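Long-time lurker. I teach an intro course on protein structure, and each term I like to show students one example going from raw sequence to a predicted 3D structure in token notation. This year I'd like something fresh instead of my usual example. Would anyone be willing to generate the tokens for the chain below so I can use it in lecture? Attribution to the forum is fine with me.
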Amino acid sequence: MLRHEFQPGRLVAGAALMAVGVLYAGDAGGAWETPWFAVLPMTAGGLCLAAVAGMLGRGIRRRGARRAAAAEARPRAPH
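-- Reply from a regular --
Happy to contribute to a lecture. Here you go:
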């Protein structure tokens, strides 16, 4: 039994923001230098990818629900 449905948009958004966090943590720890302006395109790109993944996931779920409803509405042939 599933507790909740899989939401790929949230997964992608979390991964993108975690990558930005790791990038800045490495800069703060002295492992490498990160320019201040690098975070803007990474964050915006990650959020755009998350939006696309969310829309695709929702479309797939809605299409599956429509197919299931259509299969239930179809009369069954007697044997």
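Some talking points for your students: The chain has a mean pLDDT of 89. The chain is about 70% helix and 0% strand.
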